[in-house]
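Worked example 3 (structure in, sequence out).
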């Protein structure tokens, strides 16, 4: 049954036109102190018997099953909270619901209680005062998070400031068939040369695909001599200095790409099919766990292996956030705390569940729990998250990303 009332459907229609609305600070509680949650016991008591609507990308069956079945059962049995997973195609859909409700004056009876979020969508919510903050110290499992780690404390360059709870970490990696390609290129510079020597064996999705956009950013970093000069707020002068170099590299590669660069895969799923069919020799993904999943389900050859680049690959953290107008904030905090627990992070790290890299700091666990993580079997196709993390690169401010994507479309694709 849909959780949307007719009133909320109207809000959603309004939200489609409200992406660029500037909203002012709300008088509704924006923090745990204002909402009068003094301690965890207050949160537990307020949440008992309630439900929580978690809006999240619903494109992966294994993730959906983990959330609906495993997580849902945990919060129900432990706290009496019913989890309603609301699958969406794009996080912006949930953000737009909150924006639309704000415009309609729905400040305390919102539809959305929790959002799987990061990057530009978080920036929209934080800058628009659409997010509930300053409750993290109430969560018992927050002690497992290393907030001194910049890649945790900052979401695509924007300080989290107590407004999000980390859920997963992800890092870009390449995959190859070691029987077919025993010496894959392990830097952008060597990839450029490899493409020339192996025409038709490489391609990447268009910039409107998330993974395609990330690959293009790696080339942009290479053209800039590293990401350091690109960090912080968008700088048009810096962009104008680097962009022509990046477009020249990508255009030089173009004739030697799959189908001579006359077309690009429209999604990462299409690239996976090309790799599976041996039409291309290299595949990549921001979630390396997919390499093992596709080997185990027979899509990829068992000889698939993966690696990071010598100069590092882009990594990020994704989070959950509570909208300012959620009427079920206590239940949302219960769910967020459970997602940080050892058992939740350990279960989703299992290769047959998800294989997700934990967001918690394993050094903060007791010895038995650390050993359990270390003992988890990992498909040989999947590079060790620890090895990958030794050379990680930061994500850019969303305005940089938007400029790079638009620039690629204009200067490379067309």
């Amino acid at each position: 049954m849909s959780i949307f009332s007719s009133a909320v459907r109207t809000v959603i229609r309004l939200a489609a036109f409200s992406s660029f609305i500037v909203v002012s600070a709300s008088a509704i509680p924006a923090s745990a102190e204002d909402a009068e949650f003094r301690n965890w016991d207050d949160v537990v008591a307020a949440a008992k018997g309630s439900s929580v609507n978690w809006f999240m990308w619903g494109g992966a069956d294994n993730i959906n099953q983990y959330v609906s079945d495993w997580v849902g059962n945990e919060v129900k049995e432990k706290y009496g909270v019913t989890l309603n997973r609301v699958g969406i195609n794009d996080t912006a859909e949930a953000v737009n619901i909150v924006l639309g409700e704000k415009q309609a004056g729905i400040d305390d009876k919102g539809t959305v209680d929790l959002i799987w979020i990061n990057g530009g969508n978080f920036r929209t919510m934080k800058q628009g005062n659409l997010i509930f903050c300053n409750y993290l110290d109430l969560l018992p499992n927050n002690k497992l998070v290393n907030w001194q780690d910049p890649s945790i404390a900052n979401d695509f360059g924007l300080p989290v400031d107590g407004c999000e709870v980390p859920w997963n970490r992800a890092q870009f990696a390449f995959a190859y068939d070691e029987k077919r390609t025993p010496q894959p290129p392990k830097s952008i510079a060597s990839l450029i040369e490899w493409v020339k020597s192996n025409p038709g064996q490489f391609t990447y999705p268009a910039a409107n695909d998330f993974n395609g956009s990330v690959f293009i950013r790696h080339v942009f970093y290479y053209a800039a001599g590293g990401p350091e000069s690109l960090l912080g707020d968008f700088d048009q002068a810096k962009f104008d200095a680097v962009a022509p170099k990046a477009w020249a590299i990508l255009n030089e590669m173009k004739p030697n790409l799959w189908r001579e660069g006359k077309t690009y895969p429209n999604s990462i799923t299409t690239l996976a099919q090309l790799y599976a069919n041996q039409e291309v020799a290299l595949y990549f993904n921001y979630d390396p766990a997919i390499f093992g999943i596709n080997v185990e389900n027979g899509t990829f050859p068992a000889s698939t292996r993966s690696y990071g680049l010598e100069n590092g690959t882009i990594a990020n953290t994704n989070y959950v956030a509570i909208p300012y107008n959620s009427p079920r904030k206590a239940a949302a905090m219960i769910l967020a705390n459970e997602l940080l627990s050892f058992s939740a992070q350990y279960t989703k790290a299992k290769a047959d569940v998800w294989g997700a890299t934990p967001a918690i700091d394993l050094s903060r666990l007791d010895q038995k729990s650390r050993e359990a993580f270390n003992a988890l079997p990992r498909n040989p196709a999947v590079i060790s998250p620890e090895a990958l993390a030794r050379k990680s690169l930061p994500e850019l401010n969303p305005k940089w990303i938007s400029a790079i994507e638009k620039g690629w479309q204009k200067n490379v694709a067309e």
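Notes: The mean pLDDT is 90. The domain at 171-315+391-413 is CATH 3.40.190.10 (D-Maltodextrin-Binding Protein; domain 2).
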